[in-house]
Design brief:
The complex is a heterodimer.
Chain A lengths: L3 E4 L2 E5 L4 E7 L4 E9 L5 E8 L4 E4 L2 E6 L4 E6 L8 E9 L6 E2 L3 E6 L1
Parallel strand pairs in A: 2-11
Antiparallel strand pairs in A: 1-3, 3-8, 4-5, 4-9, 6-7, 7-8, 9-10, 9-11
Chain B lengths: L4 E3 L2 E4 L5 E6 L6 E7 L5 E8 L2 E5 L7 E4 L6 E5 L8 E8 L9 E3 L3 E5 L1
Parallel strand pairs in B: 2-11
Antiparallel strand pairs in B: 1-3, 3-8, 4-5, 4-9, 5-6, 7-8, 9-10, 9-11
The chains are: A mainly beta, B mainly beta.
Chain lengths: 112, 116
């Protein structure tokens, strides 16, 4: 059974810092991995989708990497801003299955 | 920009009552999903729906749950007899493609269900 873990569970950084969020998964047989942002009490906003054949995907200040064989992905946020404060979730889509399996999220606070 | 819309945003119901949560997926999407998130816990998959039938469901999705696409735009989740433990945020999601040509999943803003 696929398990997705995110470390750290919470992170507090000063504004302007570059940071890395980690996601690991136990079964490397995945089609893709998706990163989401969730604001308190709100829905999930898709940030980046990395297909299993890709190593990296970029959108603005965000860069996500994928190492499928080792079951790891990272989300790099450059020059963090207070508006980046939210919970970041990663989710994998397995080859055998039409659903996403989510990690528990990293709660990020960026202090001005 | 196209988005997944869910109604209502918040629903309070008494234990044992039936509730219907509604979703309008993105119009050219073919795959539809319901997920839930109990407060403080992970987002969990409930069911996927394609070509007017359930394609997969989790062990959470028991006989108390059902899904329907009653017309060309709406996608509903019905809980027949709600229990206290059904209290959660329910998310609808849609996707254009699955499998080898997998595309991004887009989520709605959620319906917060409170069972009292």
């Amino acid at each position: 059974k696929q398990e997705v873990t995110q470390i750290p569970a919470a992170l507090s950084v000063p504004e302007g810092e570059n940071l890395v969020l980690n996601c690991s998964f136990t079964d490397s047989a995945i089609y893709n991995l998706q990163w989401f942002r969730q604001d308190p009490g709100k829905g999930l906003t898709s940030l980046l989708l990395i297909q299993s054949s890709q190593r990296e995907q970029t959108s603005g200040r965000l860069n996500a990497s994928l190492d499928k064989s080792s079951g790891r992905s990272t989300l790099y946020i450059a020059a963090s801003q207070p508006g980046d404060s939210a919970t970041y979730l990663c989710a994998v889509n397995p080859n055998a299955g039409n659903m996403l399996t989510f990690g528990g999220g990293t709660r990020l606070m960026v202090k001005p | 920009e196209p988005e997944v819309t869910q109604t209502p945003s918040h629903q309070v119901t008494q234990m044992g009552q039936e509730v219907i949560l509604r979703c309008v997926p993105i119009s050219n999407h073919l795959y539809f999903y319901w997920y839930r998130q109990i407060l403080g816990q992970k987002v969990e998959f409930l069911v996927s729906f394609y070509n007017n039938e359930i394609s997969e469901k989790s062990e959470i999705f028991d006989d108390q749950f059902s899904v329907e696409r009653p017309d060309g735009s709406n996608f509903t989740l019905k809980i027949r007899s709600t229990k206290l433990e059904d209290s959660a945020m329910y998310f609808c999601a849609s996707k254009r493609e699955q499998g080898r040509w997998n595309t991004e999943a887009f989520f709605g803003q959620g319906t917060r269900l409170t069972v009292v």
